[in-house]
Amino acid sequence: MVTQMSISPAAPWFRIEVNESDWRDEQARDLVNWYGQMLLVRRFEEKLLDLEKAGLIHGPAHASIGQEACGVGAMSALGTHDKINGTHRAHHQVLTKLLNAELPEDFDISRDSFAEGMDTAIYRLMAEIMGLAPGYCGGRGGSMHMRHEDAGIVGTSAIIGGNPPHAVGYALADRMLGRDAISVTFFGDGAALAGTTYESMNIAAAQNLPVIFFIENNLYGVSTHIREVTRETRLSSRGAMLGIASIECDGMDVVAVHRAMLEARRIIGETGGPVVIEALCYRHLHQSGGRAGSDFGYRTREEEAEWKARDPISLARARLTLLGVLDEAAFSRIDSLVTERVAAAASRLTEPVPGGNALRIPDRLFPDPATVDEGIVGTLAEMKGARFLDHDQMHGRAVEKLKYVTAASETLAAAMDRDPTIIVMGEDAHQLRGGVSGFTKTALERFPERILPMPIAENGFTGIALGAALNGLRPVVEIMFGDFCFTAADQIVNGVGKVRHMFGGGFPVPLVLRVRISPHTGYGSQHSGDPSALFGMFPGWRIVMPTTAFDYIGLMNSALRCDDPVVLFEHVAFYQREYEVPAGDREFCIPFGSARVVRPGAACTILATSVMVQNAVDAAEESGVDAEIIDLRNLDHHGMDWETIGRSIKKTGNVIIAEQTARRLSMGATWCAEIQERFFDYLDHEILRVTGGLAAPTVSSPLNRAALGDADAIRDAMRRMCR
Predict the structure, then answer these.
(1) Rounded to whole angstroms, how far apart are CA atoms 389 and 686?
(2) How many CB atoms are closer than 10 A to CB 427?
(3) Three-class secondary structure of residue 553 per DSSP
């Protein structure tokens, strides 16, 4: 007879309830300050809605009105050194974290005036939301993208589910660098159902990281109720099912949230982490703006009234009155104080329209339009002092033969020996005597604790690498096949590719993404792509494509010194080939922005990448065309060596661009446009592009070959151009 046995999650999963006695157990000054902070957040957002209605906020203002207890209660358990991030609705968390970083010792909001730093926090956050230069990100981030590292705010994200992996990365960095800190990522019911959130939770659990996943379950994703999109509406269950201790609490009660956070910290202290907290709460207004959700018909006024009866500020006021902590005069003073400080910030950011009562923003507060492209990448000042070496400097130096894959392995290990912040993340990176490509072979022998195995979750672990890079590590991430970059595209594009510029620049993002490309191996259409064009669309990335072991050593070392994110493409066809490299030297750099003239010539210029460099050399030798062949090496907007390219074009007057990848995935069209803008007067012939076909490679051997650019295609182009 079949017997059914109940199965419970291995991790604890429970709800925290508090009552009047728990409020009584808290310090009276803490309760007063929490009440005052919630009221400050409320008055701050009410002012924002007034400014938005007056047309003084360009973009959305996602108010957290109704959710103040979540932000204030959570921040009450954090220090300035603890890190947070949030989503598009993060004013309550960010403002409270900013204020706490400036809070004088023994501050009591019922009796004390605001310190200068507290006023500055209100002013600068309001300025940021209004898109103005005094804002923390210079106005580039606005309401949804906020960062102030000094206060532990590492960066909010408007992408649903985009921020949890970053917080896991902060926690990873803190653990590996020996810091006693926790990270908290705030997100809502919508992100709780996103794939990247699960990936992040799972990796955090596998690595025992000190991170809290704080779910503000306000029941609605814009207008869709949680029960319409998931059967299990207890969102804390997601943590429990992944082996993570999970807590549910009343998100309308600031003490309940505070106690949940303290319990989470206790659990992290015992287990290392992580913890999930689900705070049940309600946003009083629509997704954005000042209207009620009922105005749009997706919820009732009766439902809104029921939740407003449990408004966190009203609840706190009633409790403080019952406990005799504050009287009406004290409540009135606190309200007057916070309202005045918010009004003072707004008055610094606006002025009356001459001859009228309306307000406007003074021109002096807007960012300079001329700075629009500043801060996308850094200046490479960190490369000062690097030892550079290139092929033309090798005369008389001792050399040795080395396989490309061996050069990669030894270069990584040497860099890890020099720099203890370098870690490696990837699928199977810790197995197979060096991962699937042998890249980690030498490093595994020497630094096994810094080679971190990742699940098949590219978007998750790429985002975690970004968070780690923002918090002091220098991660090297392997993407096993180029096509898998598209599963990680959100973090590659919206995360790494935009983070520096979006938050105002001036901080490092030292991340290296290794991408294996193998279009010739018969792995089929989903494992054969070269996604370099994806990265080329987002200028926050530097892109390098080494074609020899020598170039790999030099370019990888430069990438590992660079404070910009760098993607390095490795063509599998090179792996087992031997190349001459400096004997015993795995530490030299090749400067970014330097193309290499592989073969001098006068008849035409061939700008080639990856395997097409040698294909171009072979085609020129076989055809007898006196072609000048340039290995671009750097493919990003900032790294194109237009000086070398221009010198060659002025000599030959003819240009062929040679890429192996499919035509619509090639970067050549972009280069064509720039060549014509820069060197049109020197061109004697239309620019010719050699690429693969329209279709992705397939498993069939002849179709696979036909889908790729090759030496024959280069030869045909040279004959057309130079006949």
Answers:
(1) 35
(2) 19
(3) helix
Tell me, what's the pLDDT at 435? 80
Mean pLDDT taken over the chain: 95
Identify which of 479, 634, 620, 482 has the alpha carbon closest to the alpha carbon of residue 551. 634
Cβ(212)–Cβ(184) under 8 Å?
yes
Catalytic residue numbers read 458, 527
pLDDT per residue as tens digits for the range 676-708? 999 999 999 999 999 999 988 888 888 889 888
Would you tell me how many other CB atoms lie within 10 Å of the CB of residue 55? 11
Pick the CATH number of 19-364 from 3.40.30.10, 3.30.420.40, 3.40.50.800, 3.40.50.970: 3.40.50.970
AA identity, residue 449: E
pLDDT in tens, 282-332: 999 999 999 999 999 999 999 999 999 999 999 999 999 999 999 999 999
Distance in angstroms (rounded) separating the CA atoms of residues 390 and 558: 12
**Tokens at 423, concatenated:** 């870690």
Tell me: the pLDDT tens digits for 97-108? 999 999 999 999
User: Which is higher by pLDDT, 448 or 467?
Assistant: 467
Task: Give the pLDDT mean for 370-380.
Answer: 94
Work out the end-to-end distance of the chain between its first and last CA atoms, rounded to an integer number of angstroms.
86
The residues spanned by each domain of the chain are: 19-364, 381-582, 596-722
Count, residues in the chain: 723
Cα–Cα distance, 424 to 380 (Å, whole number):
23
Distance CA(142)–CA(88), nearest Å, equals 10
Look up the CATH number of domain 596-722: 3.40.50.920
d(CA 85, CA 493): 18
Separation between Cα atoms, residue 380 and residue 594, nearest integer Å? 14
Q: Sorting pLDDT into bands at 50, 70 and 90, what band is 723?
A: confident
Cα–Cα distances (Å) from 130 to 50, 51, 71, 345, 527, in that order, read 12, 9, 21, 12, 45
For residue 289 the two structure tokens come to: 């703006």
Contact 61, 123 (CB under 8 A): no
Q: How far apart are CA 519 and CA 572, in angstroms?
A: 9
Q: Which CATH superfamily is domain 381-582 in?
A: Thiamin diphosphate (ThDP)-binding fold, Pyr/PP domains (3.40.50.970)
Q: Of 481, 572, 476, 488, which is closest to residue 525 (Cα–Cα)?
A: 481
pLDDT for residue 588: 97
pLDDT per position as a tens digit, 244-280: 999 999 999 999 999 999 999 999 999 999 999 999 9
Give the distance between the most distant pair of CA atoms in the chain.
96
Q: What is the DSSP string of 280-323?
A: E---SS-SSSSS-GGGGTSS-HHHHHHHHTT-HHHHHHHHHHHT
d(CA 458, CA 464): 10
Distance between CA atoms of 360 and 354, rounded to whole angstroms?
A: 10
Tell me the CB-side half-sphere exposure of residue 592, using CA atoms within 13 A: 30
What's the per-residue H, E or C state across 39-88? HHHHHHHHHHHHHHHCCCCCCCCCCCCCCHHHHHHHHCCCCCCCEEECCC
User: How many whole angstroms separate alpha carbon 281 and alpha carbon 188?
Assistant: 10
